[in-house]
Amino acid sequence: MLHIPFDNSYARLPASLFTRQNPEPVKAPELLAFNHSLARDLGISGDQDIEELATVFSGNAIPDGAEPLAQLYAGHQFGHWNPQLGDGRAILLGEVQGRDIQLKGSGRTPYSRNGDGRAWVGPVLREFVVSEAMHALGIPTTRALAAVATGEMIQRETALPGAVLTRVAASHIRVGTFQALAARQDYTGLQALFDHARDRHDPEAKDPLEFLNGVIERQAQLVTKWMNVGFIHGVMNTDNCSISGETIDYGPCAFMDSYDPMTVFSSIDRQGRYAWGRQADIIVWNMAQLATALVPLMPDQDDAITKFTSAVHAMPERLNSLWNATLLRKIGISDPRSGDLDLAKQLLTLMAAQSADFTNTFAALASDTAGDHFVDREAFEVWAKDWRARLKDETAAQDTMRAANPLLIPRNHRIEEMIQAAVSGDMAPFSRLMQAYDTPFEVSTESRDLTHAPLDGERVHATFCGT
Ligand code: AMP
Ligand code: MG
């Protein structure tokens, strides 16, 4: 028998924060993927019979000790306030070692609105591969424990096979969770949520201001790490912004191939609000919404507004200095001096002008072969002369670059290819991607082709929220 050592601290919070709800059973659960190493880390033990895993991680059986519930939250979606969101297709089973175990795609809840409460195999496997790749890249993220096919078809633009993802997170508390309670003027709930979130994520924080500063710092670090690998989250709504500082909600996310700071893939992001190069601005906006929701917790509201405003206003400078240091490390500079930033930005300008591949160009700097990625090689060579001269004064430039620049990212065309194969019953591409992306700073003969940028016919132009 599978043993999962659950605690249920969220279920002990005031009832206004959630609705107790069991997952809806599915017709014919079949295990698609299971993350054994994560299960071991979580202390999930037992003989892990494939059928039992499929039964538990589809929601068809409630494991001992779980107290299933759907969480309430609200949020700003593309800047527009939505007072009632919540887990419309997810169920929190409980916590293990302080981390949430959540089923996603597990059926309707009181927060489903018009949705069917389900997910299809494509986005489930996409989240599995991409979140595990992010983890291997050293980026804070929710993790993927299991993916189970439901044996049911669900209706999107066409009928598609359903699946349930088991997601593991430091918590599922979002900016929008605080917003929901503040907007309802449920100050008892807000205080209880604050105490709970502080215990989990910021035990040192003395008050909401220190807590806010903790979230701001984690989010600043996170967004800088996204930018470093060309990651575009795609839906940075406040309900998809985690208090823990983990990447959460892999809907229409994507990695940039050729460099263009305005790159956006999500089909619903018509204005490019969440483009790669705008993520640093948007996260500040999101933190301002969190600050607003925390104000009622402070004894003196005017004083709170003054202090919270300066905390949020300090964030752009922090983001800027994190990004500058990151960008310099990408070109091998860990001991910056004046003029270095101009040098780095000149490279980005060249890359944008020539649509150079973001990942491969930076990855090639360590072996000084980046010229291969420019159509107008001479323009690059002019830049590279100054760069090589500058690196003579850096002690470990190659090491700095190798540590900063991954060789492998989950490219969109590979993810799409993997999904197509999985839908027709072939999980081999999934396994291959999982293995390759586990070591993104190394390539083997078997994984070398995964470094290639998409050919014209392979390019993915849009990702869809129809998840
Ligand atoms: P997302 O765009 O995935 O961040 O979801 C936004 C909101 O829509 C959340 O409240 C989700 O729980 C809800 N939602 C998304 N897809 C579904 C679905 N298929 N059924 C019910 N609710 C959904
Ligand atoms: Mg979401």
Description:
It is a single chain. The protein is an alpha+beta fold and 467 residues long. Among the domains are: 10-169, no CATH class; 325-404, no CATH class. 40% of the residues lie in helices and 13% in strands. It is built from 15 helices and twelve strands. It has helices at 36-41, 50-56, 121-136, 175-183, 187-201, 208-228, 279-294, 301-313, 315-330, 340-353, 358-365, 377-391, 397-404, 412-423, 428-437, and strands at residues 18-20, 30-34, 69-71, 75-77, 80-82, 90-96, 99-104, 119-120, 143-155, 159-169, 231-232, 254-255. Strands 2, 6, 7, 8, 9 and 10 form a six-stranded antiparallel sheet that branches. The longest helix has 21 residues, at 208-228. The radius of gyration is 23 Å and the shape is globular. It starts with 17 loop residues before the first strand and ends in a 30-residue tail after the last helix. The mean pLDDT is 96.
Q: Which ligands does the model contain, each kind named once?
A: adenosine monophosphate, magnesium ion
Low-pLDDT ranges: none
Number of DSSP-assigned strands: 12
Shape: globular
Largest sheet: 6 strands, antiparallel
Summarize model confidence as the mean pLDDT: 96
Strand residue percentage:
5-15%
Rg value: 23 Å
Q: Could you spell the SSE succession in H and E letters?
A: EEHHEEEEEEHEEHHHEEHHHHHHHHH
